[in-house]
C-alpha cells in the first residue's frame, strides 16, 4: 500500500514514521539538516530511484502496521518529557560513545589518515560536550519555564537561544559529514584490525544517534515553542 506521496518533507516523515529513519540513513537521505526538503526532491538530488526508496519505506510502514512494535510519537508528548528523553537517551549516549571512541584511538597505532581523523573527532567531541552542557544548564530550563508560562518576552529569549543552538547543530553535522567521507561511509579498509573495525562501528553509531538527536531538538522540541 502506498502510504506516502513524496511531497512530505524528510523531517515530517521522520516525525510521523519514526521507525523508517534507518531506511533514510541507509540511503543517506538527510532528515536532520535538510529538513525542509521533500522526499522526492532529496531522492532525485541523490540520484536514487524514487520507486525503490518509496517501496522500501512503504514496506517498513506495512511491517509496522502488522507487527505494531511500541513507538513513541514524540510530537504528542509534553516538553519536559522530550527534554528528559534527550538528556537520558541522547546526551548520555553521546558522552559514553565519544569516550569509547577516544579510547579506541588511543589503543591503536595511528596512520597519518587516522591521526587526521582523531584530530577532527577531538574537535567534534569538545564542541558537542560544551553544546550539551549549555542545553542542559541554560536552554532546556528556559524551554521548560516557557512551557509553564507562555509569554512573548520569554518566547523571544527561547527563539534567540534556539537559533544559536541550531547553528551549532549545523556545524556538528558538517564535521560528521567530513568524518563520513574520510571513513568512506564507515567502511573499514581491507585488512583492518579489530580495533579499527570497532572504531568505524562506533563512529557510525554516533552519526546515527546524532541525526536522531538533532531531529528531536530542531524538528520536534523547538517546533513546540
Ligand atoms: Fe542535545
Ligand atoms: Fe543540541
Number of helices: 8
Distance between the termini: 35 Å
Overall mean pLDDT stands at: 94
Total count of domains: 2
Largest sheet data: none
Our Rg estimate from Cα atoms comes to 19 Å
Q: What percent of residues are in strands? A: under 5%
Number of strands: 0
Model regions low in confidence, pLDDT < 50 over at least 5 residues: none
What compounds are bound to the protein? fe (ii) ion
State the share of residues found in helices, binned by percent.
Answer: over 70%
Structural class: mainly alpha
Q: Topology as H/E string?
A: HHHHHHHH
User: What form results from the Cα inertia axes?
Assistant: globular
Q: Quick recap of the structure?
A:
This protein is mainly α and 225 residues long. It contains 8 helices and no strands. The model has no long low-confidence stretch (mean pLDDT 94).
Give keywords.
225 residues, mainly alpha, binds fe (ii) ion
What would your notes on this structure say?
The protein has 2 domains: 10-67, no CATH class; 77-224. It is built from 8 helices and no strands. It has helices spanning 10-16, 21-26, 39-45, 50-67, 79-107, 112-148, 152-182, 194-221. The structure holds fe (ii) ion (2 copies). One fe (ii) ion is lined by residues 86, 90-91, 132, 135, 213, 217. The site of one fe (ii) ion has 7 residues, from helix 5, helix 6 and helix 8.
Amino acid at each position: 500500500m502506498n502510504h506516502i506521496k513524496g511531497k512530505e518533507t524528510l523531517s515530517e516523515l521522520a516525525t510521523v514514521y519514526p521507525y523508517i529513519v534507518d531506511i533514510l540513513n541507509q540511503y543517506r537521505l538527510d532528515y536532520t539538516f535538510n529538513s525542509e526538503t521533500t522526499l522526492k526532491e532529496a531522492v532525485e538530488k541523490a540520484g536514487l530511484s524514487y520507486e525503490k526508496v518509496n517501496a522500501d519505506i512503504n514496506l517498513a510502514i506495512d511491517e509496522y502496521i502488522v507487527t505494531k512494535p511500541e513507538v513513541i510519537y514524540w510530537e504528542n508528548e509534553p516538553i519536559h518529557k522530550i527534554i528528559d528523553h534527550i538528556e537520558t537517551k541522547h546526551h548520555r549516549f553521546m558522552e559514553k560513545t565519544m569516550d569509547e571512541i577516544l579510547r579506541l584511538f588511543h589503543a591503536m597505532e595511528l596512520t597519518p589518515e587516522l591521526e587526521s581523523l582523531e584530530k577532527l573527532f577531538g574537535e567534534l567531541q569538545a564542541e558537542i560536550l560544551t553544546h550539551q552542557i549549555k542545553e542542559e544548564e541554560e536552554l532546556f530550563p528556559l524551554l521548560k519555564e516557557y512551557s509553564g508560562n507562555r509569554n512573548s518576552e520569554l518566547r523571544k529569549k527561547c527563539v534567540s537561544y534556539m537559533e544559536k543552538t541550531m547553528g551549532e547543530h549545523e556545524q556538528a553535522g558538517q564535521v560528521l559529514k567530513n568524518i563520513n567521507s574520510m571513513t568512506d561511509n564507515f567502511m573499514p579498509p581491507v585488512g583492518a584490525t579489530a580495533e579499527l573495525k570497532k572504531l568505524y562501528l562506533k563512529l557510525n553509531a554516533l552519526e546515527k544517534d546524532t541525526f536522531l538527536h538533532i531531529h528531536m531538538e530542531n524538528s520536534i522540541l523547538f517546533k513546540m515553542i
